[in-house]
Amino acid sequence: MENNKVAVIGAGLMGSGIAQACAQAGYQVVNIDTFETAVEKAKANINSLFNKKVEKGKMTREQKDEILGRLTYSGSFEDVKGAFLVLEAVPEKIEIKKDTFRKVDAAADPGTVIVSNTSGLSISEIASVTDRPDKIMGAHFFYPAPVMKLLELVRGLVTSDETYAVVKEFAARIGKTTVDAPEFPGFMVNRILVPMQNEAAFMVMEGSSPEDVDNAIKLGCNHPMGPIELTDFVGIDTMLATMTGLYNGFHDSKYRPCPLLETMVKSGMLGKKTGNGFYKYDEKGNKIGSNF
Ligand code: CAA
Q1: CA distances (Å), 96 to each of 107, 111, 115, 128, in order?
Q2: Average pLDDT for residues 263-285, to the nearest whole number?
Q3: CA pair distance 35, 139, nearest whole angstrom
């Protein structure tokens, strides 16, 4: 019988969305996070998202129950056992990624492919802490993961063709279009997108209003979201980490992170998820004003 089990490590914004996308595509999913509060939040979010879809008539109650029936949660890495594929989506810090890969490598079946959702760290470096570097590669989702159609595939120096084929087939099954991105910081999308968000933050720091910067790009370039609201949406900490990765990775001053972003992260203003970023949000996530 075909192995239909995938494990997703991390139940934050990205991990929970990836788990949802996999369950919707028919996979049996275990979403693992050692922080119980993250798991509780992930469960509450998916329930509320699906309830809205049922209310809008975009999903039946039966479909909701069926998808949620394929999605389980755990606090133990041991539950990666039996999965043909493990998708890692823990915070974007190399030491956290390496620690996670060591643990998953020790617990997973020998043939299991392990992918990282890193948005720019080195796949080869992450793979180097495992005993299966040929079975490691990058599969970078975009937020919100169940909605965004792209999956960036990133091969490490020793990723095998078999591993690539497994991930490519998985991508097709969850309905994503893939691009082959180079193993350099930012891969493909973030190397282009995040410097734009960073430049937008500089403009706010220099006195432009967030609304003006967002309207300029939304109405002038037809983007669905402006760069400032997008930064709040994905998390200012996540965006800053990616920008810092570009700066450190290319050793090029053109990628210097905007100091305002650093101050905001230090002060706990992380965007929509904390209710406070460039904009202010109510408990339901509706924008209620601006901080600049
Ligand atoms: N999680 C899951 N699903 C979500 C969601 C979320 N957080 N937010 C919205 N959705 C779903 C909704 O349920 C809805 O689905 P249905 O059509 O089945 O009802 C669908 O998305 C559309 O939502 P809405 O009608 O509420 O809103 P919208 O039409 O304005 O679309 C959007 C929302 C898809 C987020 C759109 O604004 C958009 O495409 N924004 C740009 C997003 C973007 O650029 N993402 C890339 C970020 S960069 C990145 O991710 C890189 C990284 O490394 C972090």
Answers
A1: 17, 23, 15, 14
A2: 96
A3: 23
Say if ligand 1 is within 6 A of residue 225 CB.
Answer: yes
Tracing tokens 């993250």 back to the chain, one arrives at 38
Take residue 172 and report the two structure tokens written for it: 């097709």
* CA 146 to centroid of ligand 1, rounded, Å: 8
- Confirm or reject: Cβ of 57 under 6 Å from ligand 1: no
Question: Side chain identity at 241, as an amino acid letter?
Answer: A
pTM metric for this prediction:
0.91
Nearest to 204 by CA among 267, 254, 258: 258
Binning pLDDT at 50, 70 and 90, where does residue 1 land?
low
CA-nearest residue for atom 47, ligand 1, is 143
> Could you tell me the two tokens for 167?
């991930």
User: How far apart are alpha carbons 49 and 72 in whole angstroms?
Assistant: 17
Pairing of strands 279-281, 287-290: antiparallel
59: three-class secondary structure by DSSP: coil
CB 165 within 8 A of CB 189: no
DSSP letters for 113-158: EEEE--SSS-HHHHHTTSS-GGGEEEEE--SSTTT--EEEEEE-TT
| Residue 24 CB less than 6 A away from ligand 1 | no
Side chain identity at 6, as an amino acid letter? V
